[in-house]
Write a structure and sequence with these properties.
By secondary structure, the protein is an alpha+beta fold. The protein is 35% helix and 23% strand. The chain has helices spanning 3-22, 36-42, 78-81, 84-99, 103-108, 112-117, 120-127, 186-189, and strands at 131-136, 141-145, 148-160, 166-178, 192-200. Strands 1, 2, 3, 4 and 5 form a 5-stranded antiparallel β-sheet that branches. Strand 3 and strand 4 form a beta hairpin. The longest helix has 20 residues, at 3-22. The radius of gyration is 52 Å and the shape is globular. Mean pLDDT is 78; it is low at 7-22 and 61-65.
Length: 202
């Protein structure tokens, strides 16, 4: 090979070597190297903060209804109903109605004459401003006259007024029932109020 030929070959090889030195180095092949997608998949996903449960409003307490005064009156046999126990049952129902401030019910038990003496509103006004009402009706006396039976019993109503002072009403209840005679209605044969008196004592 002549000197000229060698010089030409060397000149051609220099650019090839320069190009080879400028190429970026290729990363080594590694089967365990993670790709960007795999790296993101391996990274734990942050958990969203739990949404607090909505507050449940407290239920408004429902006041228990007052017991029916009639429910506190014991049931009697027809024979006992005609005697003193029947009269006491009526007084007991009246007393419980006043104590529980069910004044309309108590007023409904009065006789027509007493309803004219006290209107429904006037009767309720007797006790409306009182607290801690207590009605006492001690044992009374039985009498009979002209085909009817009567039961007389003292009545006292105590309580406290708006200023906390003790007050008292006293009077008498007279009950009546028509004996089992021909022509008497079922209502007449039941014990009912004949008269009621109540006066302020203090």
């Amino acid at each position: 090979m002549t000197l000229m030929t060698r010089m030409i070959l060397c000149a051609a090889a220099v650019p090839a070597l320069l190009l080879a030195g400028c190429e970026p180095a290729q990363p080594p092949e590694d089967g365990n190297r993670s790709t960007p997608t795999e790296a993101n998949a391996a990274r734990p996903t942050p958990m969203a903060a739990p949404t607090p449960a909505p507050a449940i409003p407290e239920a408004t307490p429902v006041p228990e209804p007052s017991p029916d005064p009639a429910a506190t009156v014991p049931e009697l046999t027809p024979e006992a109903e005609r005697g003193e126990k029947g009269a006491r049952n009526l007084l007991l129902g009246f007393a419980r109605s006043v104590e529980q401030k069910q004044f309309d019910r108590a007023w409904s038990l009065l006789s027509p004459a007493d309803k004219r003496k006290w209107s429904r509103a006037a009767f309720a006004k007797l006790f409306a401003d009182l607290d801690r009402i207590t009605v006492a009706m001690p044992s009374g006396t039985m009498e009979g006259a002209a085909g009817s039976s009567y039961y007389n019993a003292p009545v006292s109503v105590t309580g406290t007024d708006k200023d906390g002072r003790s007050v008292r009403l006293e009077g008498e209840a007279v009950l009546r029932r028509v004996n089992d005679v021909d022509g008497a209605t079922a209502e007449q044969r039941r014990w009912h109020f004949e008269t009621l008196t109540l006066d302020w004592t203090h």
